[in-house]
Amino acid sequence: MQDADTGTAPQELDGEGLHIGIVRARFNDAVTKQLEEACVAELAVLGVAAKHIKRVSVPGALEVPLALKVMADSDEFDALVALGCVIRGETYHFELVANESGAGVTRVALDHQVPVANAILTVDNEAQAWAPAGHKIAVSIAYRLVSQPRQKEIADVLRQFVLRAPPNLVE
User: Of residues 101 and 149, which shows the higher confidence score?
Assistant: First the structure.
């Protein structure tokens, strides 16, 4: 998956004026700090002003969705980023943290109709955590964020369509 072809981002991406919220889990701190710094650097390259990037940290991946929800509730952000690193151990706890944090991040995006880039790494060992924790993943996150706010506009149009639809189409 690391070498997957994710396509080419359009050259006209422009982050000027966008407000981005970043929530970083402190567990596996060195990895997540590197992810955060690389993401912020790439957002700057895309034109997102540093003053429009709000960064918060939480203890671990399970707390990320709640912090994202608080940010989404504020209506201050065009897009959000979830950063974390969950490394498999010898118990089932890894699956619980990976699954529940991922589901929580998705729920925030769906409930608030705000783009959320989920960069909570779920890996088998520390070496895998360091493999994608550099510039390549930050570029991917930043490109998705700068292009995703347009998805909110699409969701607004669809919502208006549904609201005007005949009652039998809307439950």
Answer: 101
